[in-house]
């Protein structure tokens, strides 16, 4: 015997809610599918509430629906440090030296609104104390980007940058997959948040 249908009083709310839900999803899909474009400001935020304007990210839509990106750093925002026989562009506070570590291998340089991995790899950093000598590549920081109403916000995660000391086996695949990243406790780093607005 087939199951009894729910009373009309129970079925009616779904008949009203479902069309509205489908309409809202349909309206959201075209916006989500739009490629990123234009110039956005890149800001690195500090634990004390201050922020440093690091430069801009320029997005250029491509025919495949993705966007090429160009990272344009303001070199005057950084101080040059010579660490472990290499020059690094760093920001300095009383407790922390925070250095940009450019991804050292060719990469596609493209993103989509739901795949920002190559931009995240272009925004790698490491930190050390002012008293430390040499680069501390095991103290890597990876900013996982999430969409916001104004652009994107990067949540800091710990990575070991020694993993990219040799070329990756799969050059077209971002090497720092989620399993190789650990969340950093809020407030643990002086430079603790990154935004693209």
Q: How many helical stretches?
A: 2
What is the SS-derived class? alpha+beta
Flag low-confidence runs. 9-32
Percent of residues in beta strands: 35-45%
- DSSP strand tally: 12
3D shape: globular
How does the major sheet shape up? 12 strands, antiparallel
Can you tell me the number of structural domains?
1
Please give the radius of gyration in angstroms: 22 Å
Oligomeric state of the chains present here: single chain
What is the string of helix and strand elements? HEEEEEEEHEEEEE
Q: Helix proportion of residues, in percent?
A: 10-25%
Mean pLDDT: 87
What distance lies between the first and last C-alpha atoms, to the nearest angstrom? 60 Å
Written overview of the protein:
The chain has helices spanning 8-33, 117-122; strands at 38-46, 51-61, 67-73, 79-83, 86-92, 97-100, 110-111, 125-128, 140-147, 152-159, 182-183, 191-196. By secondary structure, it is α+β, with helices and mostly antiparallel strands. The protein has one domain. Strands 1, 2, 3, 4, 5, 6, 7, 8, 9, 10, 11 and 12 form a 12-stranded antiparallel β-sheet that branches. Strand 1 and strand 2 form a beta hairpin. The longest helix is centred in the N-terminal third of the chain and has 26 residues, at 8-33. The termini are far apart. Residues 9-32 have low confidence and may be disordered.
